[in-house]
Amino acid sequence: MDSNAASADSIYVPDAVRTAAKILVVGHFAVGKTTLIGTLSEIAPLRTEEKMTQAAAHVDDLRGAPDKKTTTVALDFGRLTLSDELVLYLFGTPGQQRFMQLWEDMARGALGALLLVDPSRLAETFPVIDLIEKYGLEFAIAVNNFHADTAYAEAELREALDLLPHTPVVFCDARDQQSSAQALITLIRHLLARAS
After folding, report:
1. How far are the Cα atoms of 74, 121, 127, 148, 159 from residue 153, in angstroms, in the given order?
2. Distance CA 114, CA 87 (A)
């Protein structure tokens, strides 16, 4: 394979980087985790996407995502260099219950989690919140507005998800880089505030 210095420079972390931080991107099945990481990552993201088959038809509920053809079976991974000395690693977790055993390893060392929520499928968010709390992660809610016709006010979402007053809620579109970055910034500000 042919390579050049420019592509090699973009693949590897610069030598000056001394600190790495880990953030989880979590949420239920088909909420946009893979999309958000792909939107934000400065490198081609690592994806463990596999075609969905009839074997999973009785387990993976496609009502909220009828056009979904692939699913994450291990993790998604992306990278974002924040400064000359700091790099942020984004790890996306699979959303199905059968993959929850991966959470323990993925949560280890994470600073926090960005929890993507589909407002048309709020009930599917509760098992994910349970896992976030089980592993003691701080988190922010990013309401992924795939469906413009499903709009709720922040107060309604807070009540429906039974959120603590300090838990940030931001609206985003995982397909849009600026919107996704704003969701990530909201989480990072929350983590800094909680650490001080």
Report:
1. 33, 15, 22, 13, 10
2. 17
- What's the rounded Cα separation, in Å, for the pair 47 and 43? 12
Euclidean distance between the first and the last CA atom of the chain, given in angstroms as a whole number:
48
In terms of Cβ atoms closer than 10 Å to its own Cβ (0-12, 13-18, 19+), residue 114 is: buried
Q: In this predicted model, what pLDDT tens digit does every residue of 133-187 receive, in sequence order?
A: 999 999 999 999 876 666 789 999 999 999 999 999 999 999 999 999 999 999 9
Distance of alpha carbon 110 from the chain centroid: 12
95 in Cβ contact with 31 (< 8 Å): yes
What pTM was estimated for this model as a whole?
0.81
8-state DSSP, 68: -
Are 71 and 97 contacting, i.e. CB atoms less than 8 angstroms apart?
Answer: no
Q: Which of 90, 69, 68 is nearest to 79 (CA)?
A: 90
